[in-house]
Amino acid sequence: MTRVLVLHGPNLNLLGQREPDVYGPTDLATIDQRLADQAKAAGAHLETFQSNAEHALVERVQEASRQGVEAIIINPAAFTHTSVALRDALTGVAIPFIEVHLSNIQAREPFRQHSYFSDAARGVIAGLGPIGYELALQAILQAAERN
């Protein structure tokens, strides 16, 4: 059974109410439920975790390594542009990960256009809204089938 961890960074708990013109009307619970349904249908184990605290996300990545998590989907949110610590945790545990963003960070303010994660990620999905998470999970599940 493929084990996948989905990490949501700061302020993603406000989805559905925070800047819906940028992030869309879908709330985080709906995104997580769609992913859970997709994982269940594929016979995979999926866990989700959201935190506004950088240290909590770092600790969850380190814990994932001890739990046998095989892949991570991460939307680092604002930490995309600031967190060397979270990047170091991901590269340190060597669990393949896909970076997801609801909005197209390349089309946003200049400070949002740099990611500390993209060069280490297996892939990056940005600007497709909530379906980006589902596409990331699909890619992980297909890769697991090939192995």
Describe the structure.
GO terms for molecular function: 3-dehydroquinate dehydratase activity. Keywords: Amino-acid biosynthesis, Aromatic amino acid biosynthesis, Lyase. With 147 residues, the protein is an alpha/beta fold. The chain has one domain: Dehydroquinase, class II (Rossmann fold). Helices cover 40% and strands 18% of the residues. It contains five helices and five strands. It has helices spanning 20-23, 28-42, 54-67, 84-93, 131-146; strands at residues 3-8, 45-50, 71-75, 97-101, 123-126. A five-stranded parallel beta sheet has the order 2-1-3-4-5, sandwiched between helices. Strand 3 (71-75), helix 4 (84-93) and strand 4 (97-101) form a beta-alpha-beta unit. Helix 2 runs parallel beside helix 5 and helix 3 runs parallel beside helix 4. The chain is globular and about 40 Å long.
Layout of helices and strands, plus pairs?
Elements: E1 3-8, H1 20-23, H2 28-42, E2 45-50, H3 54-67, E3 71-75, H4 84-93, E4 97-101, E5 123-126, H5 131-146
Parallel strand pairs: 1-2, 1-3, 3-4, 4-5
Helix pairs in contact: 2-5, 3-4
